[in-house]
Description:
about 160 residues; mainly alpha
Amino acid sequence: MAAELGAHEIMQLHEVLTDTIDGINQFHLYRPHVQDPQLRTVLDNQIGFMTQEYNNMVQTVQQQKRSEAVPYRRVKNTSPAYGLKNPSPNAPNISPDEMDDRDVASGMLGCHKASANLKMMASLEFADPTLRRMLQQGAINCSEQSFEVWNVPAAL
Length: 156
């Protein structure tokens, strides 16, 4: 399939795949800093899903299989709490040892937001319906994953 893609599609695909690798690596770096068990479970589940999503896209491009995009299944039993919690002012950490659950969750949210944007923008460039749908679903998956992180009470 890669030979059937246009140059702009190859460039977009490279950006999306590289972004996905970077996100997985970033989440692995966060793992030692997580204290909250619920956030750790979310992080581990999302690493697994992101890896599966990456492998699925690579296999589709290499024509090893024609597959559909897989939707992310977040935990549904969440009830968001609205309102301000009188947060204390934020400041950069002096060292990596100071990273806490809030830092990890914030980094995860930023990663998912940027990836959602990149995947949706890339989907607008694809003529191949399978890859276009995979990218669209990938953007939706990022939205679901960010909502899941936002719902971890101890994280933010």
